């Protein structure tokens, strides 16, 4: 039985020699949710992401997407099913403009075959016009239309993360895994990224899973929140429930309730 979530993970293990990075994790990600994934460093969060997204093959266990067994499928197959793991598409073409970076994303473009280059010029031109219009719409949605002609290598780290979100919009993603989107991003841009995630979730039906250490960001966006420790799922619930959970507090701090407000600090 594979459950009813958009993503269902059953008894997943990923071992590196004797080290059990993921050690029997089971969880469900509901369609249409923004699910937070928290836990101390070394909890197995990124390894779990990498196994779900096909970057790593599991030692054992299963992963299902909308009822289909996707265990061990390579990232490009999952990409075409609408499952995106942000670092796969994070490496911008630094010498190209932000608009051109977005236009590079969709697969199966007419200009990619030599035959079409010779005989399908109108089709290529029509497709490029449509892609350009879509890229401009994405840039506007993300409030970075003023960067359309800027070289992607010259924009800030936070703006690159917005561009990364924009790439997911070029292929109509169904579920997006975001790994520490807030790392190294100033508060203003982080709020803009948060706004974009909320709008993509509400207006376009995206499902998100977010690894993040910034508890304010998690609290604003995520319900439910899943806490991992030592490769296992420790607890799941709202952020206040997670923060009040004695097991979670021990996993983060090992000092009991008196320091619970420091979770995520």
From TrEMBL:
An example molecular function term from Gene Ontology annotations: ATP hydrolysis activity
Organism of origin: Roseobacter denitrificans (strain ATCC 33942 / OCh 114)
Domain ABC transporter residue range list: 7-255
Cross-referenced PROSITE patterns: ABC_TRANSPORTER_1, ABC_TRANSPORTER_2
Signal sequence extent: none
CC annotations in GO: plasma membrane
Pfam families: ABC_tran, BCA_ABC_TP_C
The UniProt record lists the keyword Nucleotide-binding: yes
Listed CDD domains: ABC_Mj1267_LivG_branched
Name by which UniProt lists this protein: Branched-chain amino acid ABC transporter, ATP-binding protein
